[in-house]
Amino acid sequence: MAAVSWREVLLLTGLVVGCYWNSLSCGFVFDDVSAILDNKDLRPSTPLKNLFLNDFWGTPMSEVTGVVGRAELLSSIFFLAAFLSYTKSTSPQRAIVWTPILLTVVLVAVATLCKEQGITVVGICCIYEVFVAQGFTLPLLLDTVRHLVLGKDGFPLALLQTLLKLMVLVISTLLLVIVRVQVIQSQLPVFTRFDNPAAVSPTPARQLTFNYLLPLNSVLDTRNLATLLFYTALALLAVHSLRHRHDSAKTVIMALSLLVLPFVPASNLFFPVGFVVAERVLYVPSMGFCVLVALGFKLLGQKGVLKKLSWLMMALLLSTHAVKTFHRNWDWESEYTLFTAALKVNKNNAKLWNNVGHALENQNNYVMALRYFLQATQVQPDDIGAHMNVGRTYKNLNLSREAEEAYLVAKALMPQVIPGKKYATRVAPNHLNVYINLANLIRANESRLEEADQLYRQAISMRPDFKQAYISRGELLLKMNKLTEARDTYLRALDLDKTNADLWYNLAIVHIEMKEPREALINFNHALELSPRHKLALFNSALLMQESGDPKFWPEANRRFLLYVEEEPQDANGYFNLGMLAMDANEDEAAERWMKKAIRLKPSFRSALFNLALLYSQAKRETDALPALDELLRHHPEHIKGLILKGDILMNHKKDTQGAKVCFQRIVALDPGNVQGKHNLCVVYFEERDLPRAESCLVETLAMAPNEEYVKRHLSIVRGKMAAMSAAGQPLKTQPREGAAVEEVEVEAQAEEEGSAKDINDIEEKRAAALKRLEEIERLLSSD
């Protein structure tokens, strides 16, 4: 083999870079999103064994698997490596070298894992062994076989070695095929007529179309005549090469092998695949085509008169294809540019209209997306996916009635279940989502929950391993307060997939609703074992541990909240709950820091504002508490407990009786039945020395809360004071004096509308402090 010069390497590198440099600005499009961005197998937490159980998309191969489910480029690399390794399997002394053969077997397996057509390299190796390594021509091979069958000659050692090498390859290939068939549970993938229209076309259109694909993927392009010419050319090349032993013939044999064998799995000739025409299946076959071109160029260059013409033709071929490649790269800039370019070629393909719609939908351009989805339904009225796309887009546009109509059309196109009749049919898994989407839409109406449940159950009956149906039905049953059924539904889903962190999380939520916090925490932990950064599991498990009141859980709860804010740094709820944990642990500095962080992210966060003010009040920093309360009441002027706390601070620390009176009057106006506010207003009247009004106020308060002993005691004290003053001839209403008045302040951590705060109204430590201050009130009321 001639050595490759640096000039040739640089020329080839420059040509490739020149053709593809503009593709660097292109984004992830089409299959890239599922295969790379959304592929769980590419995440560090995924077990390595999943690579052997899941397809290229990260989906278990027993479920959505296709023949073209692997990366062609990667497969091509191992394909070539396997072939090159096999070429080293014979020593100069014509003995078998087993190391390259074993390496070939491994590389064949790797190539097949990357892309199923990688297994065809075994056929390439067999052809190489027979016609290149052993130097057989077809007539010689047939003659040798005939002699062996008739027993005219002995069994040559070289032939024995050849058969032994080929047996190792073939047996290993069969084992690989058996494993592959077991993984996909002996079922071919399900493709719809929209993926591959030719696969369901009648005879002879189906056969003519698939045969036409062969010349379409070569240099010719004239329908059925091209098919005939293509097969004729292949046959003439094969026959000529198989009858001769010179090097050019061997080269042609290997080129034809590379051209034909790797294309067979994706040719639709033996089983349908998920496409009609796809450029990606030509990576390996193009090698054979390039070898034929190079051989032709070499042979023409050996004839002086044609040498210049051959160089001209080569330059023209490279330049035209380079320009075409460069221009085509711009189409791959985004999904929108890719599929709009395809629509210019074929406007009668519903899949293309759908794909442009998806691209616009990903840009949140729902109005334009709807136009393309509707056009897809016009091009292919029985395209279930197109009607589903229309329904989903109507839903995104908040047009629920139109969305339901579209989903019902899609549902009507599905195979209909006939009661009492059993039959088998194959349904594209993604089409079953029509039941899920329709149920999710109508369950927004409380009166149609049972109807939605029926749709979920119908989807499950059509595909018992439909995990998403179980998940959605579990959510619905939870909404319907059918907790036992919801739990059983999630357990059934977990039987199908115990590695789904979302299922463990949902089951934990059910146990919370069932008042089973221990089981809920166990399931949250299962979810976090599978997905350590599962945001909802981190937050809610930490909240559950925090609300348990058990200090032994606080360090772990704190760790999980910290992980949560790393994942969601803009969510004020995480910082607020860190602050609440710090308050529970009497870590005032940390609590203040977290509460301020929550308020910076969400200035109107009422629970954070109130608890920050409460923190200041407990730390005897009333001057700092008042601005926080003012900010709270600016955003939430009807916040009762904020008004109570502010009134307390104004009375006891600022000696601002009028300011406190305004707060308590505001409380009574907002909530006439609020005993605390009413009682505190009575104390203000007493502070103002308006004893008749204080008495009347306390009588009203006692009527509201007849079992409150402290109100009875205070009324008795006021009446005693009034009697003593009357006996002494003193007026019952005098000028107010400075003094202290305080009410029982309850701690509030009222849940935000988003639902994430912790209610700590019943914390005994805080209540004890309030009761102590209540004793001070009684001493005040009983004094002169």
Keywords summarizing the entry:
36 helices, 66% helix, 784 residues, disordered C terminus
Please tell me about this protein's structure.
- This protein is mainly alpha-helical.
- It contains 36 helices and no strands.
- Helix 11 runs antiparallel to helix 12 (283-301).
- The longest helix has 28 residues, at 304-331.
- It is elongated.
- The chain starts with 5 loop residues before the first helix and ends with a helix.
- 34% of the residues are buried.
Structural class: mainly alpha
- The total count of strands amounts to 0
Q: Could you describe the largest sheet, including whether it forms a barrel?
A: none
Span between termini: 117 Å
Low-confidence stretches: 65-70, 735-784
Mean pLDDT: 81
**Helix segment count?**
36
**Form type:** elongated
| Radius of gyration, taken over Cα atoms and rounded to an integer in Å | 40 Å
Task: Give the helix proportion (percent range).
Answer: 55-70%
β content, as a range? under 5%
Membrane topology: Multi-pass membrane protein
EC number: 2.4.1.109
GO cellular component, one term: membrane
Protein name: Protein O-mannosyl-transferase TMTC3
Entry summary:
The protein has 36 helices and no strands. The chain has 784 residues and is mainly α.
Task: Give the helix/strand layout.
Blueprint: H1 6-20, H2 31-37, H3 50-53, H4 72-86, H5 98-114, H6 121-133, H7 138-150, H8 157-183, H9 205-216, H10 223-242, H11 247-260, H12 283-301, H13 304-331, H14 335-345, H15 350-362, H16 366-379, H17 384-396, H18 400-412, H19 433-442, H20 449-462, H21 467-479, H22 483-496, H23 501-513, H24 517-530, H25 535-547, H26 554-567, H27 572-584, H28 588-601, H29 606-618, H30 622-635, H31 640-652, H32 657-670, H33 675-687, H34 691-704, H35 709-727, H36 764-782
Helix pairs in contact: 1-13, 4-5, 4-6, 5-8, 6-8, 6-11, 9-10, 10-11, 11-12, 14-15, 15-16, 15-17, 16-17, 17-18, 17-19, 18-19, 19-20, 20-21, 21-22, 21-23, 22-23, 23-24, 24-25, 25-26, 26-27, 27-28, 27-29, 28-29, 29-30, 29-31, 30-31, 31-32, 32-33, 33-34, 34-35, 35-36
Main location: endoplasmic reticulum
GO molecular function, one term: dolichyl-phosphate-mannose-protein mannosyltransferase activity
Enzyme class: transferase
